[in-house]
Design goal:
The protein has helices at 18-29, 42-55, 75-89, 112-139, 166-186, 208-215, 226-238, and strands at residues 9-12, 33-38, 65-69, 94-97, 148-153, 190-197, 245-249. It has 271 residues and is α/β, with parallel strands linked by helices. It has a seven-stranded parallel beta sheet with strand order 3-2-1-4-5-6-7, sandwiched between helices.
Length: 271
Amino acid sequence: MSPAAPSRVVLVTGAARRLGREIALALARAGWRVAVHYRGSAEDAEQTAADCAGLLAADASSVKSAAFACDLNDEDAVRRLLPQVVAQFGRVDAVVNNASTFEFDDAASFSYAAMEKHWRSNTGAAILLAQALHTHLLTRQSNQDQPGCVVNLLDQKLWNPNPDFLSYTLSKAALEAANTLLAQALAPVLRVVGVAPGLTMTSHMLSAEEFAALHRLSPLGRSSTPADVAATVRFALENQSITGTTLLVDGGQHLMKFGRDFSLMGAGTAP
């Protein structure tokens, strides 16, 4: 009897907390070994990795999950990240670019510094990790039955624009365009898919009541939940016929016009 093939490995950026953690746990439940990326939340990242490993108790692999620190604004550090994951796990099959810088600016306060900060972490890092995964897959010893996959987390506001968070929005718009360019350039070795949530998790800018009211502002009466987004990421990773497109998971919020970003629509909120 031939030995079982090694289980698949996915790197999830920004997986220590919030949506990234939910994605990491969902993929572990589906049998993926998970590399948990973080920048500063080491304790949370180690907990997420331990929880993912616990969900993979039946997996015979020596490394089920592990945490990796990296500042996505640092190009050299980003270039080292995927090789570090390969060295630990022996392989990588997919990357989920979930981590994002999300800081307020608008047309009046825009600066080169704000633009560069968002583009480095939100756009440049995602492209470098796709490049690194493509290179890794080309050098794997065995033939690949299936292409690898990169999933880029985007935002429904690209289809429903408002002028808030200008640099963030531009960085995500560039990443959405990169989906098409990378899907063309890196096929057939690698698929590239976008997932665009609506309002999914609250923030310090919104009360629980405000978040609940905004979450209901969609044709379906609810926006995306973390479970919805995680399920869509898994679908994108595992459906071998999808590339160069974006799946919107927002209850239809992109069909409605909002004059402000959700985070600034609560009573008394200000940038």
